[in-house]
Write the structure tokens for this entry.
Amino acid sequence: MGLGSTGLSVARYFHRNDIEAIFYDSREQPPGIEALKEINPNAVPVLGENANGLLASANRIIVSPGIPDSNSLLADAREKNIEIVSDIDIFVDKAAAPIAAVTGSNGKSTVTTLLALMCKSAELRVLAGGNLGKPALDLLAEEKPDYYVLELSSFQLQRTPRLPLEVAGLLNISPDHLDWHADEAEYRAAKYRIFREAQAVVFNRADENAEQHIPNGVPRLSFGLDEPAESQYGIRLEDGVEFLARGEQLLLSVHDIALVGRHNQSNALAALAMGSSMGLDLRPMLQVLNEFPGLPHRMHIVDRISGVLYINDSKATNIGAAVASVESIDGFVVLIAGGDGKGADFGEFAKAIHHRLRCAVLIGEDAPAIASALDGLAPAHLAENMHDAVRLAASFAEDGDTVLLAPACASFDQYENYQRRGDDFCDAVAELKA
């Protein structure tokens, strides 16, 4: 169900294994329809809202992550006791190598990438994917690795009844995807599911509720931006310099991390803790932290023009990520934000960042909601599109300020994805010099 990238990976897996299936998408012309025909010329897709009779011969539905449980077809399937799963359920049943998995509201793509690079630096064969990069089922078409490293979304976790992991990492939880989940409690419960069958667990000490969800007797490591207890990961101050540390052992000065921002120090510590749980040596892990500059569209420095720094953090698609981005900047921020807020409440967002803002320039569907939340706290201006927003931001920014694209929203009201949004921001910054 769903002919996006996940649905097409399911089609490829089925075709490789001679499994028959019905391919359904509620859209009349889904973007994956031509790709499906190339994968399996005999596939007969069912398209459009009229899905009458579709469940008559179904014994299981593999659902793409973007389709919410409130979907009427899925509601009918539950009444008929038809099993509803994600692609990850198939993957864990067939994967022949240990799996390390990462989830969290923010930072999971960065930590998944860091962990995969650390494995490679330790001369292990690793395949990474899931919610990042290659869909999980496509990884099964490749040569068996020493480790699979998966990024998992709350959608995938909620629909995966069995998840035997070698190491599970939960980075953080802040309200997100409330347009998909019934409420914040359901969203949190989905995230905590990652612990349920793990052989070892990594969690953030800042989450007071995380440890109570870890099964008794499971080895665990914590990380955080405070001083760590023995064998745990955190930050220590030595002679006025902050270091990543394990217990009292100083590992790497924060100035020697290639990643930008306080939140990336937390991501680095999480990756170190997960790598340690996998048995990796410190030296190759620290080398990765010293060299890896970050993912595209994640705190990427685009340019400095007339004393103003321009940073693209288009991947900050929720409130928690955007707050972390703003807080990582020294000096005043001209924030470009807005898009599809996914049902988020922007009141707490405004309270958390207003004192760091020169002003906000807002775009997209939820621009008025963010402007309303900032009313009386910080100046807010509405822009027609990204290029208008960048021009306005440049006119408001002063020497030493940062113009930061950290939308706190999804991109789908204006763009195909957050990458296209980030590219548009970069193009608009380039136009300032034209």
